[in-house]
């Protein structure tokens, strides 16, 4: 495979792609080169048919401490606006159709919190610290934080976090539903994410893709259109081989052997 400078890429379990952000000296600050590598690795997993789900993590100390402040310090409005600064950073939410689990330990601040929230499932450990501290730098969240955090934890809590720059603890993240699970240790968090990814990768990839697609539609559509959208996709799955395989295996009390067709 490719060699990267700022990330580590592997396939530790059947069907599971694993990416670890690896700029330890800068607490995984999200520089443009790092984001380009991350997008490249995700695109490779997206186009590898044997990969069914992906886990993204950082180090025990930091998932990511935000966009690279040193890189941004001298940016001007024209340069940022002209080059659509940050736009490509959230590409992954559109091109990545396979489930992404973010395993968050340590700091997930600013762009780090936003990247964590681009995951389809968020897991964290007790060491996790979330926050959108941009207000302290004279700016605001720039990669979806104001939208995704508000959808995840509600307006009042998101306003408080974004307007004060105060951190959100792992316990709050769990209680408020920002994350699906809070683990005791970073190791348990990453292992839990890998286990869930392996489980997801073991199902029909056609059904998994459809499931992610319809859940994501709930973020954009009203309930009525969303339910109609779901039904269209549900009906469509009766045209797949795996629907026949799955339902006949159930009737015969056998294990389904998915074809991803
Ligand atoms: N950018 C660049 N370098 C960073 C960043 C960062 N965001 N965070 C930490 N570092 C560097 C430090 O400068 C330091 O480097 P050096 O050793 O060369 O001085 C090293 O990492 C270690 O950091 P600290 O010494 O500060 O470690 P502490 O344990 O004392 O503190 C903190 C850890 C609390 C995380 C602290 O480093 C901190 O507050 N970091 C900044 C957090 C922040 O403000 N993040 C938001 C950035 S703005 C942003 O993300 C805008 C979003 C835009 C969209 C992004 C799309 C994905």
From TrEMBL:
Keyword Lyase in annotation: yes
Cellular component per GO, a single term: mitochondrion
Alphabetical keyword list: Fatty acid metabolism, Lipid metabolism, Lyase, Virulence
Domain of life of the organism encoding this protein: Eukaryota
Organism whose genome encodes this protein: Melanomma pulvis-pyrius CBS 109.77
EC number: 4.2.1.17
Pathway: Mycotoxin biosynthesis
Family recorded in the similarity comment: Belongs to the enoyl-CoA hydratase/isomerase family.
Top-level EC class: lyase
Gene Ontology biological process terms, A to Z: fatty acid beta-oxidation
PANTHER family, sorted: ENOYL-COA HYDRATASE, MITOCHONDRIAL, ENOYL-COA HYDRATASE-RELATED
Molecular functions per Gene Ontology: enoyl-CoA hydratase activity
Gene3D superfamilies in UniProt: 2-enoyl-CoA Hydratase, Chain A, domain 1, Lyase 2-enoyl-coa Hydratase, Chain A, domain 2
Protein name per UniProt: Probable enoyl-CoA hydratase, mitochondrial
């Amino acid at each position: 495979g490719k060699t990267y400078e700022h990330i580590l890429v592997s396939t530790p379990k059947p069907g599971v792609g694993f990416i670890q952000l690896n700029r330890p000296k800068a607490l995984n600050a999200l520089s443009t080169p790092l984001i380009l590598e991350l997008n490249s690795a995700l695109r490779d997993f997206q186009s590898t048919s044997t990969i069914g789900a992906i886990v993204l993590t950082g180090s025990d100390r930091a998932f990511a401490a935000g966009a690279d402040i040193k890189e941004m310090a001298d940016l001007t409005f024209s340069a940022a606006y002209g080059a659509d600064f940050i736009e490509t950073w959230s590409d992954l939410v559109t091109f990545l159709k396979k489930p992404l689990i973010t395993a968050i330990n340590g700091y997930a601040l600013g762009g780090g919190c936003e990247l964590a929230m681009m995951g389809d499932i968020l897991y964290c450990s007790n060491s996790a610290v979330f926050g959108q501290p941009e207000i302290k730098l004279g700016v605001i969240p720039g990669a979806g934080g104001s939208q995704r955090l508000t959808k995840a934890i509600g307006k009042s809590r998101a306003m408080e976090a974004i307007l004060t720059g105060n951190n959100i603890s792992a316990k709050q993240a769990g209680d408020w539903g920002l994350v699906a699970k809070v683990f005791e240790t970073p190791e348990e968090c990453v292992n839990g994410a890998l286990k869930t990814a392996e489980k997801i990768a073991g199902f029909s990839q056609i059904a998994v893709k459809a499931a992610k697609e319809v859940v994501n539609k709930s973020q954009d559509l009203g309930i009525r259109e969303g339910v109609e959208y779901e039904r269209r996709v549900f009906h469509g799955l009766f045209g797949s081989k795996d629907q026949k395989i799955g339902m006949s295996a159930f009737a015969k009390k056998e294990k389904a052997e998915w074809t991803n067709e």
